[in-house]
Amino acid sequence: MRIINFAAAAAVAGLIAVPANAQTLQEVKDRGNLNCGINTGLVGFAFTDENGSWQGFDVALCQAVAAAIFDDPEAVEYTSLTGKTRFTALASGEVDLLSRNTTWTLSRDVDLKLDFQGVNYYDGQGFMVPKALGVTSALELDGATICIQTGTTTELNLADYFRANDMNYEPVPIETDNEAQQKYLAEACDAYTTDASGLAAVRSSFENPSEHVILPQIVSKEPLGPVTRHGDSEWSDVVRWTLNALIIAEEKGITKENVEEMASKPVEELDPEVARLLGVDGGYGEMMGLPSDWAVKAIAATGNYAELFDEFLGPDTAVGLERGLNALYSDGGILYAPPFR
Question: Distance between CA 100 and CA 39 in Å, rounded?
Answer without folding.
Answer: 5
